[in-house]
Amino acid sequence: MKKGIDHHQIGESVDQYLLIKNAKKGIASNGKPFLTLHVSDKSGEIEAKMWGVTPEDETKYSSGTIVHIQGDVQDFRGMRQLRLKTIRPAGGLEQSRTEDFLPSAPLGREEMLEKVNQYLFEMSNAKLQRITRHLFKKHQQDFSVSPAATKNHHEFVSGLLYHVLSMLELSRSISDLYPTLDKDLLYAGVILHDMAKVRELSGPMATQYTLEGKLIGHISMMSSEVDEAAKELGIEGEEVLVLQHLILSHHSKGEWGSPKPPMVREAEILHMIDNIDAKMNMMDRALERAAPGEFTERIFAMDQRSFYKPTFTI
Amino acid sequence: MKKGIDHHQIGESVDQYLLIKNAKKGIASNGKPFLTLHVSDKSGEIEAKMWGVTPEDETKYSSGTIVHIQGDVQDFRGMRQLRLKTIRPAGGLEQSRTEDFLPSAPLGREEMLEKVNQYLFEMSNAKLQRITRHLFKKHQQDFSVSPAATKNHHEFVSGLLYHVLSMLELSRSISDLYPTLDKDLLYAGVILHDMAKVRELSGPMATQYTLEGKLIGHISMMSSEVDEAAKELGIEGEEVLVLQHLILSHHSKGEWGSPKPPMVREAEILHMIDNIDAKMNMMDRALERAAPGEFTERIFAMDQRSFYKPTFTI
Amino acid sequence: MKKGIDHHQIGESVDQYLLIKNAKKGIASNGKPFLTLHVSDKSGEIEAKMWGVTPEDETKYSSGTIVHIQGDVQDFRGMRQLRLKTIRPAGGLEQSRTEDFLPSAPLGREEMLEKVNQYLFEMSNAKLQRITRHLFKKHQQDFSVSPAATKNHHEFVSGLLYHVLSMLELSRSISDLYPTLDKDLLYAGVILHDMAKVRELSGPMATQYTLEGKLIGHISMMSSEVDEAAKELGIEGEEVLVLQHLILSHHSKGEWGSPKPPMVREAEILHMIDNIDAKMNMMDRALERAAPGEFTERIFAMDQRSFYKPTFTI
Amino acid sequence: MKKGIDHHQIGESVDQYLLIKNAKKGIASNGKPFLTLHVSDKSGEIEAKMWGVTPEDETKYSSGTIVHIQGDVQDFRGMRQLRLKTIRPAGGLEQSRTEDFLPSAPLGREEMLEKVNQYLFEMSNAKLQRITRHLFKKHQQDFSVSPAATKNHHEFVSGLLYHVLSMLELSRSISDLYPTLDKDLLYAGVILHDMAKVRELSGPMATQYTLEGKLIGHISMMSSEVDEAAKELGIEGEEVLVLQHLILSHHSKGEWGSPKPPMVREAEILHMIDNIDAKMNMMDRALERAAPGEFTERIFAMDQRSFYKPTFTI
Amino acid sequence: MKKGIDHHQIGESVDQYLLIKNAKKGIASNGKPFLTLHVSDKSGEIEAKMWGVTPEDETKYSSGTIVHIQGDVQDFRGMRQLRLKTIRPAGGLEQSRTEDFLPSAPLGREEMLEKVNQYLFEMSNAKLQRITRHLFKKHQQDFSVSPAATKNHHEFVSGLLYHVLSMLELSRSISDLYPTLDKDLLYAGVILHDMAKVRELSGPMATQYTLEGKLIGHISMMSSEVDEAAKELGIEGEEVLVLQHLILSHHSKGEWGSPKPPMVREAEILHMIDNIDAKMNMMDRALERAAPGEFTERIFAMDQRSFYKPTFTI
Amino acid sequence: MKKGIDHHQIGESVDQYLLIKNAKKGIASNGKPFLTLHVSDKSGEIEAKMWGVTPEDETKYSSGTIVHIQGDVQDFRGMRQLRLKTIRPAGGLEQSRTEDFLPSAPLGREEMLEKVNQYLFEMSNAKLQRITRHLFKKHQQDFSVSPAATKNHHEFVSGLLYHVLSMLELSRSISDLYPTLDKDLLYAGVILHDMAKVRELSGPMATQYTLEGKLIGHISMMSSEVDEAAKELGIEGEEVLVLQHLILSHHSKGEWGSPKPPMVREAEILHMIDNIDAKMNMMDRALERAAPGEFTERIFAMDQRSFYKPTFTI
C-alpha cells in the first residue's frame, strides 16, 4: 500500500490523488500570476506552487477540488514543498468523498462521542452535569467534526473532539493523584472550554475565523452560552458562576485572551491540562517528521523552539 | 456655613457629624487592637485611627454609623489623617439620613437620568436604541446610584451615571468633529460599557467586589446581557455583535482585562473617551487639594505620577 | 471627470499622468535590476514595479519626474499595486506643477493659517501668546507645507498644519466640557508640539529624516527653541518652563521618545488629543479603502490591528 | 487528642509545647527590642511577637529551643498570629526530640525511599539508570530529609522527597497516556532535577541558602554532578548530554533560572509536571485554611492570586 | 583620633558633634509626633529617631543645625540606626562650619578642577574645546560642589566633579586601547553630560530636585545649553549636533530618560563609562561596610542585588 | 597590491581567488535551484548567488573549495552582494592553503598566546592561577584558532583569543583606576569566561553550533570544567566557587543566558568589559565600511541601531 503525502522524504516522487484544501493566487516577482495550493490526503498536507496560471486554471484548481498529481518533494527554506510535474482534475471522483482526503483524528467520531458520554455519565453533581450535557447535545453535530484550531495544534477533522477526549483522560489520572480536585467541575470545564470553537471557526474544510470569532471570540461566547443554558434549565447556584469562570480563565492570562486569571483550583488545572495536550500534539507531530539525531523545524506556538530527537529513544 | 471634611487643611480642627463608611480592626505593634475608620460627609472622606479599642467599641463604631467627632487634621506619610480627640455615636440621627453623609455626583440623579434619556432619544438606529433602552430601563435603579469604582475615579454615589453622562457629552463633541464616527453606536457603547458594574460592585455604601464581580467581571457580564437582550427583543444583525465587541474591547488590551482589542473605529474611540474622563476626574480631584506651585500626591492609577499645579493657571 | 489613483479598484485600468514621488533601484531574484516607483496624483499614491531597467531608465524615471502611465491595478500580498504597460516622461509639463500631483490636506493652506491665527488671537495669557506667535511666524513658511510624518498619519502636503488645526478644534471642545483646563496653555502646546518637524523632516517631497532629526529629534529641538524664544523676547516665569514640559512630554513615555512623562494636567490632555487625531486619520484612511463587511489592511502604528467596517454604518 | 497549631482558628486559645524554628530580633517603633518567633509543631507553624525582651530573653528563646506557650490566635493584617500570654523553656525535653515538632511530609521517609527505588528498578535504559542510582545513593541521606524550598511549596522535612515521589506518579500516568514519551528519561529527570537542593539549602531546620546555593545554584551544581558521575562510571553517549539538558532547562526560561529552554520532549514535560505538583501543593494548603465561600490569602508564587473555595465542592 | 559615624559597628556607642542634614516630622503608630533625623559628619550619615517631640523640638532640631549626640548604633531591619540617649544644639559652633560635617569627595575641589582643566587643555578640536570650556567656566562654581545625585551614587559634596574626573581617566585609558575613538569628543561628552545637574538639584545640602529639574530634566537642559553656547560663540558645524546627541543619549534608552539611543560610537562608550563609574561607586561603598564572607545590603539601583565579599580578596 | 574583497565598493569589478566558506542550496521563485555562496579572502567575506545550478555544480562548489571568480559588487537591499560573471574551481591550489583565504585576527596566534601567558604569570593568587593555567593548557590548541561566535562579533579565525586579549588589557587599565578590584580574579574570569566556546562551536571553518553547544551551552560547560579542574588539582576554597560564579553570571541576566546575575564585584565588571569589547568590535567594523557623513547598516546585536560616522572625526 502506498504511504501518505505526509511521509514522503525530500527527493521522493509523488504520483497520487490529492485534495486542494486551499488555493490562493499571488503575483510572482516577474509579474506573472501563480497559485499556492495546499493539497492533502488522509496523512497530512503539503504546499505546492503552480507557476504561470491562466484565469481558467484559477477556476479549475479552486479549493475543494480533487486532483491527480505527479511531482516530487523538495526542500524550500527548511520546509517540505511539492514540485508539480503534472496536475489534472480527478473528474470522475465524486465530491462526497472529500472527507477521504482530509487529515482527521486517529479515533472514529462515534467512538469518541461515546467516550465523552461515558465521562458525562460519571458526573454526580446534577447541576454541572445537566448544563454540560445540554450544551454537548446542542452542538454535538459540529463539535464532532470541528478542528481545534486553524493551525498549530489539532487542526484536523474532529481535532476538537480528540483534544477534549485526551484532556478528559488526563483529568481522570490527575484527579486520582490529587483527591482535592473536584472531578465533576474539571470534566465539565474540559468538555465546554473550547466548545464555542464551532462558532469561532468555519468548519473542518478551508478553516478560517468567522466574524463573531474575530470580534467576540470563543471564550466570551461560551461563557454566555453557559449563562443562557442555566437560565433555560432553571439552574441556579454557584456552579454556574464557577463553570463560567473556568471557561473565561482557561487561557490563564489577559495577554493570552482570558479576561480573568484562574481563581479556582480546577481552573488552574484546566489551563495546565489544556497546555500539556496541545504541546504534546505539537511536539509529537514535529518529531515524527525528524530523524533521530536531528532537530525539528521551529514550532511557532512554542516560542519558535526546535526540538531535538535523541538517538537513544525509540 | 461650615466647610466639609475634604477641605480641611493640615492643622485645622474638626467638630462635626460624620458617617463611618468603613471600619476595619487591626493590631498595633504594641499588641493592642485599634480601628481604622474611613469617615465621610458630603465633601469627601478622611482616614482616622482609634487606638486601644474594646470589643464594645468595635460594635459601636461599625460601618454605617453616624458619629460626632472632635479632633484635628494631621499629616501622615504625605496623606491627610484625622486625629480623634472625642468620638460618640449620633444616636438621635436616623439611619435614613446616611445618604446625606456620602460624597456624591455634582449633578442630581433625576437630572442626569433625564439627560441620558435625551441621548437615547436622539439615536436613529432602531436596533441599537432598543437594546440600549431595554438594558437602561432594566438596571435604571442601581445604575443611578452606583459608583464607577471602589477607588481611583468616580468612586462616589451616582459616580457611574455621572461618568457616563460626561462621556456622552464628549462623544457628541468628538463625533461632530469627525463625521465618519457612527454616533448611535458610540452612544450605545458609552451607556452600556460599564453598566454591569451594578453587579460587579456591592453598591454605593462600603463598596466592594461581589463574587460574580471577581470571578466573571463586568465586561463579560455585560456582553452576555446584550446577547440575551437581543434574543429577548427578537433583534438580529451585525449591530448585536458589534455592540458586544465595543463592550468587550473597551479596556483596550488583554492585560487590562479586555479579551479582544478594539477592531471597530467606534470601539477605539470609546476606549479613549473613557480614558479622558477617568483621568480628568483623577487629576482634577488631586489638583483641587494641592496649592499652586505644588505637586499633588501620587495618583496610583496614573503610573504613580504626581502632577504640578502651575502658579499662573487659575 | 476621471477619478484619482487612490480610488481605483483591483482590476481597473489606469491611463493618466502621475508624479514619481520616489524611485528606488533593486535587484530581482533573477539578478536583473528593477525600479520600485511610488507614483502619485492628488488623490494618493500607489506602488509600481518597472522590470529589467537600463541605466538610462534610471535617469529618465527619477524622483520628481511627471510621467504618463498605462496599466492596471493588481493585488500583491494584500496591497494594491500598479502594473505598468507603458510609461513615458511627460516632457511638456513644467516642473512647477509638481504640486498638482502631490496628495495634500483637504483644506487650503491660507484658510488653515488664518484659522490658527484665530486661535492665537483668542489667547489671553500674554507670555504664552507671545512665545507661540513668535515661533509660528518664524516657521510659518515651512510649517504650512510640511507633512506630519514620513508615513503612518498625515503624511501629505500641509499634513502638519491640518493635524494641528484638528487638534485645536478638539482642544476647544474638550476645554469647554472640562473648565479646569487652561485653554491658553493647551492651545500653545498644540500649536508648538510638533513644529520642529519642519527641521526633523526634509519637506513635503521625497520626505525623509534630516541628520538633526535623527540625532536630536523634534521634541528636543522644539524645547530648545521655546527656551531661546523666551530669552529673545525677554519673557520669564513658569509659563516658559511648563510650555517646554508640554512639548517634552507629549509622547507620554520614555520608550515613545519623551524624556519626561506628563506632570501637568494640560500635558496629559495634549498627549491624548494628539493620539485621537492621529488614530482617527489612520483608521479613516484604512476604512475608506475597505468595503462594508470587510476588514482593513493591518495598520502598522496601531499594533498591527485590522479594523472591521460594519455593514450598518454609512 | 489535641489538634495542632496549624488548625487553630482566630480567637482560639493555645496551651502546648512548641519548637522555636526561628528567632529574630527587631526594634519596635517605640525604640524597644522585641523577638519575632516562628514556632511550630507537627501540624505547621505560626508567628508570635515577644515584646520588650531582655538580652537574657534573646539567649533563652533562640532557634531550636522547645518552649511551653499559653496564648491565643489573632488576626494581624490578614495573617494568623499567636499572641503570647506566658512562655517558658521546656527544660526537661531533650533536644533529640526536635524532629517531633517540625512539620514533615505525610508519608514516612523509608516508605518514600522504597517507592523511589521501585521506579529506579523499572528503568530499562542502563546508562540512565546507573547515573541516577549512583547520585541517588550518594545523596540519599540528605535527600530523604531536605525540604524542597525555604518557602512557597514543600518547605517541610522530607518535602523534596515527597515532591519527587508525587512527580514520579504523575510521570507514570502521563507517559501511559502519551506513549511517545521516554519513561526512563522522564523518571531520571524527575529524580535528579532538584537533587542539588541538598547543597543549595542548609537542611530541614532554620532552612536558608548556602553560599554555593546563592552563587552557583542547584541547577548548575546538579548538571555538573551528572557530568562527573558519568565520567566516574565510565558512561558515554547522548544520554549524559540529554539528562544534563533536562536538569538545566527544568525552570523553562532564562528569567526563571534556566540557562537553556527545553529542547527535548521530556524536558518540556518535566517542567510541566514540576509546575503541577508545586502549584497543587500551594493551592491545597492555602485552601485548607479557607472556609467554603471564601478566598484564600494571596499566594506569592502564583502571581499573588487569591483562590476561591466554592461552597459546592467537598 | 576618633573614627567617623560611618565606621561605627552595631552596638558601639556614639559621643560626638553631628550635623542635622535633614529633619522630617512623622506620627508614630501611638499617635505621637516624632522626628526622623539624618545626621552626618565627614565620614558619612546615619538615621536617628527622636520620639515624642514637642513643637519647640521641631524648631530646635531643624535641617542645618549642628548638635551634640550621645547614643549607640543599632540594627533596624537590616539597616544601621543611631539610638539617641542625649541630644543638644551645639550653640557655640558657627554655622559657617557646616561644611566640616558634610561627606565629600576624597579629592580636593581645587585639585579636581585643575585636573579637568588639564583634559580640556589636551583637546585639539577647537570647536568642541571652546564650547566645553565656555560651559565649564559658566557653571564652575556650582559644578565644583554639586553632588551627582540625591541618592544611589556620588551623593556627596563635589560628587559630580569627582564622578566626571574618574570618567575622564577611564576615557583616556579606553581611548588608548581603542584608537578609533575620538578622544576630544569623548572628553567633551564626559565633562558636559551631567553638568545641568547644577540646575536639576538644589545643591550639596538637603539636596532635592528643583522644579525645572522635575519638569525638564538635566538632559534636555544641557542639550539646550550646548545649542545656545554654540550660537553665542558663533560656532557652527556637525560638532554641535553630535555633542548634543552625546548628552541626549547618555542614559541609553527611552525608559531610562534618553530621548534618543546612542547612534555615534563615542555616545555608546560615554554611556558605558558612566555606568562603570556609577556602579563601582555603589559597589565599593556597600562592600566597604560588609565583612569578608558576608553579603552587602541590597543596592537599589543595581536591580536590588546584594554583593558577596569573598574572604580571599584583600 | 590588490585590495581584499571587503574593501570593494558598489560597482567595482572583482577578479581574484576566493574561498567558498559556506554553500547552501535554495529554490528560486521560478522553481529552479540556486546556490547561496559565502566567499572570502583574508579581508572579509561577501555573499554571491549562483543561478540555475546543476547537481554537478552543487558538488563542484561546496564549502571549502577555492575558486576563481570574475564579477562585480552590487547593492542588494542595502547589503553588498557579489554578482558572478565567471566562476571556476582553482584546481591547482592545494587545500592546505585554505587558511590563507579566511579572515583572522589582526595579531598572530603565537604572539597572542604569549601575551596571555604574560598575564597568567602576573597572577599572585596560586589557586586561581593554577586552575586558569590548567584549563588554558588543556584547550590551548582549539582556543588559539576558534572564533568567538558564528556571527555578530569576533567571528573570524582566532577571534576568541583576540577578544580575550583585548579584555585582559581593559582589565588591567580599569583595575589600575579602581584599586578595590581583585586583578587575579578578573584575569582568571576573562581568560576562562568563553573558553568552552571551543566545545560550543565547530571550529573556525563553516562554523556552527555543536549538539552540546545547543543543549548545554558554553556557560554551563565551563562552570563544570572549573569544578572538575579544581578537584583534579586538589584545590579547595572559595576561589573555586567565586570563579564559577564569574563564568555563570557573565551574561548578566537570565534572559541573556546566565543562570545567576553578578553578585561579586569582579563579576559585574567582567560583564561590562565583555560588553565594551564586543560592541567596539561591532561598531568599528560597521563604521569602517561607511563613509563620513553616512549611517552604517543596522547592527543586529545592538538593538538594530545604525551608527553615524561624523565628518569631523578622522
From TrEMBL, chains A, B, C, D, E, F:
Keyword Hydrolase: yes
Cited NCBIfam families: PRK13480.1
Keywords from the named record: Exonuclease, Hydrolase, Nuclease
Keyword DNA repair: no
Domain HD: 163-279
Taxonomic superkingdom: Bacteria
Name the record gives this protein: 3'-5' exoribonuclease YhaM
Family annotation (InterPro entries): HD/PDEase_dom, HD_domain, NA-bd_OB-fold, NA-bd_OB_tRNA, YhaM_exoribonuc/phosphodiest
GO BP: any one term: rRNA 3'-end processing
PANTHER family attached to this UniProt entry: 3'-5' EXORIBONUCLEASE YHAM (PTHR37294:SF1)
Molecular function (Gene Ontology), one example: nucleic acid binding
Organism: Alkalicoccus saliphilus
